[in-house]
Amino acid sequence: MSDIANPIANPLAISALEHWSYCPRQCCLIHAEQAFEENIHTLRGQAVHARVDEPGMETRPGLRVGRAMPLWCDRLGLVGKSDVVEFLADGTPYPVEYKHGKKREKRHDDIQLAAQALCLEEMTGKAVPFGAIYHATSRRRREVAITPELRQAVETCVAEVRAALSAPTLPPPVNDPRCKECSLIDLCQPAPLAEKGKRRALAAHLFEPEFEPGN
């Protein structure tokens, strides 16, 4: 097996799955082009993670709590670091991912959490049926069931990200409300590139009746 096809030789950051499920172009800018810029949202995220970035383990009655634990899954070739993993009395891991903002469901957060669960299952040999997203602004947890559908979403993301990172070009910009929150908007240039694409489509179909870009 070549190194390119070998997931262990080419580990993929768990964070890439979150970035991909939020915006494929953002994922490739960060993980293929090594491009990154800060904005208020990334700085708030860093402030939240600063609370759990110091590695360590503490014991409470019926519970062990690990912070900043290294994670890996050889089967999928994933590597990363947990925010918090709570180990229940029977040893079952319960990953907790910290996010800034209020409690609300976000698909990309759930995929990131599920990827952590798959890593913990391989590392510990224990099933991980649940995890949680801790929302710092509201100081509330949102429990997430690690369902078969969510597990499959992780597998699909891994395959898609690996294919995209080896592709010769970046995915096209989404140019939708997500872009306003993205720290990479100036590097990505979603509006100008989308407008160029629209003009190219119009030019290519100039003499076709009733053509609309996107059809």
What do these coordinates show?
- This protein has 215 residues and is α+β, with helices and mostly antiparallel strands.
- It has two domains: 12-171, Lambda Exonuclease, Chain A (Alpha-Beta Complex); 172-215, no CATH class.
- Helix content is 40%, strand content 20%.
- The protein has a six-stranded mixed β-sheet with strand order 2-3-6-7-8-9.
- It is globular.
Give the helix proportion (percent range).
40-55%
Hey, roughly how much beta strand do the residues contain? 15-25%
Mean pLDDT: 84
Helix- and strand-based class? Answer: alpha+beta
What's the CATH topology name of the largest domain? Lambda Exonuclease, Chain A
State the end-to-end distance.
41 Å
CATH arch. level architecture of the largest domain: Alpha-Beta Complex
Compute the CA-based radius of gyration. 20 Å
Strand order in space, largest sheet: 2-3-6-7-8-9
Count of alpha and pi helical runs:
8
Q: Any low-confidence stretches, pLDDT <50, length ≥5?
A: none
Overall, the morphology is: globular
How many domains? The number is 2
**Biggest sheet layout:** 6 strands, mixed
Number of strands: 9
